[in-house]
Structure to design on (830 residues):
């Protein structure tokens, strides 16, 4: 029996035990994990150092090495995140619907765990602890399949989790790490419907696209963000500059950063030069269409590819449109259905934009950077979904649950 | 450009128009469709007759021909179902969450249409009208791909829908039928992520399995029902016989009919012979394990395959277990996560069963036949989901919706 089948069977069995554990038992287990992480931080850092050394030898970039690196501060942050998770309400058991039928049947729709979650992710050991603790809080078992570049760190974290779980009411098999990080085990997970109820890819667009294309297990998709800000004719200049600079520069590498400006042509006439100069002086590289170029010489000529590009750096494309309808059409053509904003004082235009743009989050007069589980007050986040089924936008704990109908009778039959 | 791409582009454009139509406009369009169906019933029956003739020549079974057949009564039933759909509340625009942030941001999570629904189904012209009208009520566009055996009927129904929509505020392109019913167009739909937001297969297990395996478009899965009734030690004999006969014989061909009995061994000792004789005399073919066989000679020896079989006829497998734990393990091993019942007077056993059996609907002392959108009071049903993401169990109108976050600000930026 291969590793996936062996661990799959144990995870399935653990998931059946997890439906019987209480909120208190789950929170006690999470507290034990947080405690053990701190107690074993030297061990974790020692193992992490092995990943960093191998990574250096293999020529990983400084950015990737930084994502892998664990120090006391980062391990403390993990433990603190677990403490916040403990304080969050438990979604399991929540009654979503109650139906009483004339024949006396009582039907209750309640939140239940999904079962076994499969998680495929890149070289970020923090995802190991995040995915494990979010899965346990929602009563799920989880099978983790990380990157070989972080495998020592992941193994150390899993060892610590298992040590912690041994003294709790939760089954140790509820959290398992795939040891074999070859391409084969990823492929096996794509087809492990027998053991997995859902597969969640976290990482690059390439990873996510592969999972969506190949997996027969249902996928919870967290996608890319080619986010736009549309400056309508009546957009306030001061608000526009502040929001654009925030949405582009505050953290350019994240999915809710803005990648493209769409500007109504009269607004461009009036404020274009001043805005473009200001953005350029802030260090933003601009790629514009011909009308934009005419207003400021430091703008580069945009190509068709620029409208679809999620730069994830200090680049920004700039497109001119005649009106809000053209803006909506442009965004629905090139956007990734993540976060889209209109800046305007015109309520009719705002309503039209918010209704007609097809995206998880649509903004009137605010920065796209707010699309985030913590900003929305969910306390925890598994990712931001750009798909339309199950969960859309920032996913809090309920995204890791399913529902079940409980029907209570006294012998009712169907007539 | 192929038919899928051409109709896909038009459906996408129609879906963007659909977000602006009101509940009144949608209901007016549905009323027009109902009216036009009645007005054109002779034409529909004439075209339906062509399918029946070709089907007869091709040797389709009487059961399949009956599913294809449309008469005045069935067309009237379609029109009446549309009338009921009109009366249902519109889920679109419903506010599911309201979050007010300290910085003044107002976040609203509202129900929105999915966009474009793809529907692949077998020879049932009633699905054409069902899928079209449910999609329109929920603000979606739909691309229908039916069976060649019902293609004349489907084309007639689509023509009638288009006639009706011409005089409404809804785009005619919101409902489209694929003319080419070759295997190729089905395969193209599996990968039409550019145009489709979701793909719903309706029909045989084989069809659904193919779609789940091959589709890269997210799938709403309606699965098979290998449903069990477990007779616990304290199950009431009279209630047990009434519920089993109902769940098996009232409509054996449907997914919520019972396919397997699981009997606690002491109950079998006391009541087995009487129950088995009664079921046999009702015309039910029984397949049991050795302990069951020992109680009644007319029981056939069950094979391993029987425990996994959804008979969809008057057959029933019968399995002996020592206790409720063994019953749960048997059901979680062989069930299809559809509808599972325990009959008992023991509240502890009932709670254990309901919590630990992994299924969309779990019953205490009632027939499994109630798992149905109409029985649950949803007024309409797209199918019964056996998957855990998005929708589980009977799917009413909300299953055909997604959500969207609307964020209203006054210039807020992220700090």
């Amino acid at each position: 029996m291969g590793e996936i089948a062996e661990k799959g069977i144990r995870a399935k069995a653990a998931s059946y035990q997890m439906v019987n554990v209480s909120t208190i038992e789950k929170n006690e287990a999470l507290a034990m994990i947080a405690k053990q992480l701190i107690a074993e931080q030297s061990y974790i850092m020692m193992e992490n150092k092995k990943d960093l050394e191998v990574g250096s030898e293999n020529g990983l970039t400084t950015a990737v090495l930084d994502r892998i690196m664990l120090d006391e501060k980062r391990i403390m942050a993990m433990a603190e995140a677990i403490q916040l998770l403990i304080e969050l309400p438990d979604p399991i058991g929540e009654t979503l619907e109650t139906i009483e039928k004339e024949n006396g049947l009582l039907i209750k729709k309640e939140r239940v765990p999904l079962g076994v979650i499969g998680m495929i992710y890149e070289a970020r050991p923090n995802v190991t602890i995040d995915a494990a603790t979010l899965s346990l809080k929602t009563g799920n078992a989880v099978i983790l399949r990380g990157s070989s570049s972080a495998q020592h760190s992941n193994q150390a974290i899993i060892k610590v989790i298992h040590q912690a779980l041994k003294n709790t009411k939760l089954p140790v098999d509820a959290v398992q790490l795939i040891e074999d990080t070859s391409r084969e085990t990823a492929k096996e997970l794509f087809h492990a419907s027998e053991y997995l109820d859902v597969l969640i890819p976290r990482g690059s667009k390439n990873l996510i696209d592969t999972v969506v294309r190949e997996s027969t297990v249902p996928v919870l998709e967290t996608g890319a963000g080619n986010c736009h800000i549309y400056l309508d004719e009546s957009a306030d200049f001061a608000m526009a500059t502040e929001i654009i600079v925030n949405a582009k520069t505050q953290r350019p590498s994240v999915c809710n950063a803005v990648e493209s400006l769409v500007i109504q042509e009269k607004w461009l006439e009036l404020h274009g030069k001043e805005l473009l100069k200001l953005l350029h002086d802030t260090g933003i590289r601009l790629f514009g269409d011909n009308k934009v170029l005419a207003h400021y010489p430091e703008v580069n000529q945009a190509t068709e590819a620029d409208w679809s590009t999620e730069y994830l750096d200090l680049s920004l494309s700039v497109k001119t449109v005649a009106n809000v309808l053209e803006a909506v059409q442009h965004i629905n053509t090139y956007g990734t259905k993540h976060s889209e904003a209109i800046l305007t004082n015109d309520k009719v235009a705002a309503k039209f934009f918010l209704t007609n743009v097809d995206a998880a989050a649509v903004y009137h007069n605010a920065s796209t950077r707010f699309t985030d589980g913590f900003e929305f007050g969910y306390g925890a986040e598994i990712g931001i979904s750009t798909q339309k089924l199950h969960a859309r936008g920032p996913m809090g704990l309920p995204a890791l649950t399913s529902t079940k109908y409980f029907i209570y009778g006294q012998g009712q039959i169907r007539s």
